[in-house]
Amino acid sequence: MSVTSTVPDAQLSHQALERLRGLRSEGSHEGVFTSDFSVNEFLMVREAGFEPLGLVVGSCIYHVGVQYTSWNRNQEMTVLSQAMYHARELAMARMEQEASALHADGVVGVRLEVKRMEWDQDILEFMAIGTAIAHSAGHPMFKGVAGKPFTSDLSGQDLWLLLQSGYRPLEMVMGSCVYHMAHQGVMKSLGNVGRNAEIEVFTQALYDARELAMERMQREAHEAKAEGVVGVQLHEGSHNWQPHVIEFFAVGTAVTPVEDKSILPEKLIPQIVLPVND
């Protein structure tokens, strides 16, 4: 099952446009920049040849549908998997739209947050937030897939190290799987009382769910023509669903080699020590 979908270009609100007008844009020193960088991150991003432009945000309030399943069967909740993926994708698309409005080359330090709304247990807020940056020399080589700003959850320090190793970020890739774990029968539960025993049905359910999430993340990396994924994180949460339903969410930064090393700042290019002949 594929949980990918096409997200149309997001329309920025009037308030968002007004805020963005007060920020810097690529090649301009007018306006102020905003970021959630620490001082160390700020310094390392600049050492890597980039300038921060501003915080960019994408938000999506999403009603998650209902799906029923057999209580004694392991299976993916495909309706919920699609909802969780699509809502995050919408939030990411709106964050990228703000970055494009600033003519950014990329967004670093991206955080994806999910919060349940108190007024309705079926409504979740999804938010993507990060710092838009632009390369000081304006090299288009640093753009992401299809010429859009790259996205990455790497820190400023990690971005510096990635570039020093000869790689650059392409985009954040993710995979989601919401899975129902079968309930144990009464006799099986009683048989485990007082003794150590693996609950195989639970082991298999969690294993399968993690594998599905990881496989979908890897598929996105293949589609982006990345060489690999760094900084992979695997999150799990129930989001207050019914018992025995859990989500596994895999996310990381897809990377590719920098083809033209001359675009890297000189101090980032590894020094090659040649052997000295006697």
UniProtKB/TrEMBL annotation:
Pfam families: YbjQ_1. Signal peptide: none annotated. It comes from the Bacteria. PANTHER family: UPF0145 PROTEIN SCO3412, UPF0145 PROTEIN YBJQ. Belongs to the UPF0145 family. This is Heavy metal-binding domain-containing protein. It comes from Acidiphilium acidophilum. The lineage of its organism: Bacteria, Pseudomonadati, Pseudomonadota, Alphaproteobacteria, Acetobacterales.
